[in-house]
């Protein structure tokens, strides 16, 4: 089953880290790009066939995978012949197709542009290149297949970032400092889509100007074709430098939460 990764955005909110020269998916978390951690989490659960949609600074992501095997090995070079031998390499058994879907293309357009690489009658995973989770992909897929609709998103409850004030008029009746739980689900970015979803909601002349999260998913919800899989475990996006620092701290724990 294929996994499509949306990696074409500019990542402006984390510009302090990217400095305008590094695409957000290549921002390192404990020495490896966050994109690698996402793909590793899929591969650990048996899904190793990836389609990576790049755009802004996409050539850097292509370069990363072009030299992927060399990065994990020592090299011996015969300077007379140019022959290169990789020594002691440790590589992942993945298939990675990196495709340029345009620097300014919106997310629905990126998905539409890669349909030629998708199986006609099979669902596919879809996620972003900036979020980590321990979501059970088998359970997510079983849930999707059981309900028979065109799309499933993983709903997560985001960790509390700000304190909450409960009011009656102008009087504060209760104050909670960064609550761990609330009842507000958001799209955690781990999705399963049928190919028919793309054909129905993401195709057309305006696809490149359309955000997946707006008209396509909103219309699918209105049509009764969108379901939510509830995930109660770990989830963390990397929108800001603060998020990046948090993920680097978590990556150094004995039990890395997204593994």
From TrEMBL:
Nucleotidyltransferase found in the keyword field: yes
Top-level taxon of the source organism: Bacteria
GO molecular function: glucose-1-phosphate cytidylyltransferase activity
E.C. code: 2.7.7.33
Nucleotidyl transferase domain segment(s): 2-235
InterPro entries listed in its UniProt record: G1P_cyt_trans-like (IPR013446), NTP_transferase_dom (IPR005835), Nucleotide-diphossugar_trans (IPR029044)
Keywords: Nucleotidyltransferase, Transferase
Record keyword Aminoacyl-tRNA synthetase present: no
PANTHER family noted in UniProt: GLUCOSE-1-PHOSPHATE CYTIDYLYLTRANSFERASE, GLUCOSE-1-PHOSPHATE CYTIDYLYLTRANSFERASE-RELATED
Name of the protein described by the UniProt record: Glucose-1-phosphate cytidylyltransferase
Organism (species): Sphingomonas jejuensis
């Amino acid at each position: 089953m294929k996994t499509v990764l949306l990696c074409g955005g500019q990542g402006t909110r984390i510009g302090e880290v990217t400095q305008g020269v590094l695409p957000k998916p290549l921002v390192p978390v404990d020495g490896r790009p966050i994109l690698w951690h996402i793909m590793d989490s899929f591969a650990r659960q048996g899904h190793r066939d990836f389609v990576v949609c790049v755009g802004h600074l996409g050539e850097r992501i292509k370069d990363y995978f072009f030299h992927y095997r060399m990065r994990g090995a020592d090299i011996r070079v015969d300077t007379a012949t140019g022959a290169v031998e990789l020594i002691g390499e440790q590589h992942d058994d993945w298939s990675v197709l990196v495709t340029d879907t345009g620097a300014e293309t919106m997310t629905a357009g990126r998905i539409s542009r890669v349909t030629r690489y998708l199986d006609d009658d099979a669902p596919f995973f879809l996620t972003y290149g900036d979020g980590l989770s321990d979501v059970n992909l088998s359970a997510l897929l079983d849930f999707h297949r059981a309900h028979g609709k065109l799309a499933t998103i993983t709903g997560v409850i985001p960790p509390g970032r700000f304190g909450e004030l409960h009011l009656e008029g102008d009087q504060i009746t209760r104050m909670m400092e960064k609550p761990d739980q609330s009842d507000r689900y958001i799209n955690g970015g781990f999705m399963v889509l049928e190919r028919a979803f793309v054909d129905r909601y993401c195709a057309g002349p305006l696809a490149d100007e359309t955000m997946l999260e707006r008209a396509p998913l909103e219309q699918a919800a209105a049509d009764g074709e969108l379901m939510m899989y509830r995930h109660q475990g770990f989830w963390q996006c990397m929108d800001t430098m603060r998020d990046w620092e948090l993920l680097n701290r978590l990556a150094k724990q004995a039990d890395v939460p997204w593994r």
